[in-house]
């Protein structure tokens, strides 16, 4: 680590997750300063002009949304020979688009909720329940509607009727993009933080909201993130599945795997986040704390992994 002196933290950006990214970046910046690094914090919303990054030893990516998670930034940094935290271009590209992500999981027989994609919400949509039945031969009473490319539960809606669908179209912040309808797995939700290819303590997510939406993630103080109470064999099962999915998508360094468990006990991979939140409400710092890793040490370990 002696060669690392100057660190730049990229945060903010222009995505719908800007406010989350700002809080993440500010926390990381303070930790870097406390660790003795010469750190600079830059609010970046133009990832096409990156020449100024050459003067730094490493880039800590705290940009959420397209700018930090789609793989575009990582590809450019690779071509410039600049070190950065987190997963590579391919892994980010594979996890950023939810439809592509699910296709990869299904091709490797890794369980994930079933669903189908649509091009946008601007035009009249056929009943998603009918489409699901036609595709899978099964009636379903509840679906989730979510953008193919976005995070932090932006524009995610529960759909239990066509009336719900109509309301969702009117409420969505951006309808002119790809969306995914996904079956609801309604029982328990977990998240597994991964650091240096090892699982940190598993968290169970409990919220008073109807699901783990933006408010539950970043605003509500009633959301509970508690260490999951598993028997040893079940704990190993969820850890093995999380690592299998993490590696299948080409992820490395650090990240977060979100899972659902149905009433029969089966686990499903919901999504993988290659640039997880680092706010005081975020799962990775909470999971690290359960393992005896302080926020400052967590930041240092992420930097160390990028350097190695």
UniProtKB/TrEMBL annotation:
EC number(s) reported in the record: 6.3.2.4
Regions crossing the membrane: none
GO MF, one example: metal ion binding
Protein name (Swiss-Prot/TrEMBL): D-alanine--D-alanine ligase
Binding site for Mg(2+) 2: 271, 273
Entry's family note: Belongs to the D-alanine--D-alanine ligase family.
Pathways per UniProt: Cell wall biogenesis; peptidoglycan biosynthesis
A biological-process GO annotation: cell wall organization
NCBIfam families xrefs: D_ala_D_alaTIGR (TIGR01205), PRK01372.1 (NF002378)
Function of the protein: Cell wall formation.
Catalytic residues (positions): 17, 152, 282
Cofactor field: Mn(2+); Mg(2+)
Reaction catalyzed: 2 D-alanine + ATP = D-alanyl-D-alanine + ADP + phosphate + H(+)
UniProt-annotated location(s): Cytoplasm
Cofactor annotation remark: Binds 2 magnesium or manganese ions per subunit.
Species assigned in the record: SAR86 cluster bacterium
Superkingdom of origin organism: Bacteria
Cytoplasm is among the record's keywords: yes
Binding site for Mg(2+) 1: 258, 271
Domain named ATP-grasp: residues: 102-304
GO CC entries: cytoplasm
UniProt keyword annotation of Transmembrane helix present: no
Entry keywords, A to Z: ATP-binding, Cell shape, Cell wall biogenesis/degradation, Cytoplasm, Ligase, Magnesium, Manganese, Metal-binding, Nucleotide-binding, Peptidoglycan synthesis
């Amino acid at each position: 680590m002696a060669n690392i002196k100057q660190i730049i933290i990229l945060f903010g950006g222009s995505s719908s997750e800007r406010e989350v990214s700002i809080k993440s970046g500010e926390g990381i910046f303070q930790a870097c300063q406390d660790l003795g690094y010469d750190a600079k914090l830059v609010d970046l919303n133009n990832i096409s002009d990156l020449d100024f990054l050459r003067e730094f030893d490493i880039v800590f990516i705290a940009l959420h949304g397209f700018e930090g998670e789609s793989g575009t930034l990582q590809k450019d940094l690779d071509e410039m020979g600049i070190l950065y935290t987190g997963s590579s271009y391919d892994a980010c590209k594979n996890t950023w688009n939810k439809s592509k992500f699910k296709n990869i999981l299904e091709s490797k027989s890794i369980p994930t909720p079933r669903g189908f994609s649509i091009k946008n919400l601007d035009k009249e949509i056929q009943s998603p329940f009918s489409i699901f039945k036609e595709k899978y031969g099964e009636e379903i009473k509840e679906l989730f509607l979510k953008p193919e490319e976005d995070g932090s539960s932006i524009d995610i809606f529960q759909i239990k009727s066509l009336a719900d669908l109509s309301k969702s179209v009117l409420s969505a912040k951006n309808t002119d993009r790809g969306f995914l309808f996904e079956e609801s797995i309604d029982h328990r939700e977990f998240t597994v933080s991964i650091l240096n290819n090892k699982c940190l303590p598993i968290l169970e997510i409990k919220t008073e909201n109807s699901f783990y939406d933006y408010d539950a993630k970043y605003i509500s103080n009633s959301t509970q993130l508690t260490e999951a109470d598993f028997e040893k064999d079940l704990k190993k099962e969820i850890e093995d599945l999380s690592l299998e999915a993490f590696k299948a998508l080409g992820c490395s360094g650090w990240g977060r795997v979100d899972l659902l468990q149905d009433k029969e006990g089966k686990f499903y991979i919901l999504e993988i986040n290659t640039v997880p939140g680092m706010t005081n409400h975020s799962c990775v710092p909470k999971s690290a704390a359960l393992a005896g890793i302080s926020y400052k040490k967590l930041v240092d370990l992420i930097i160390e992994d990028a350097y190695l």
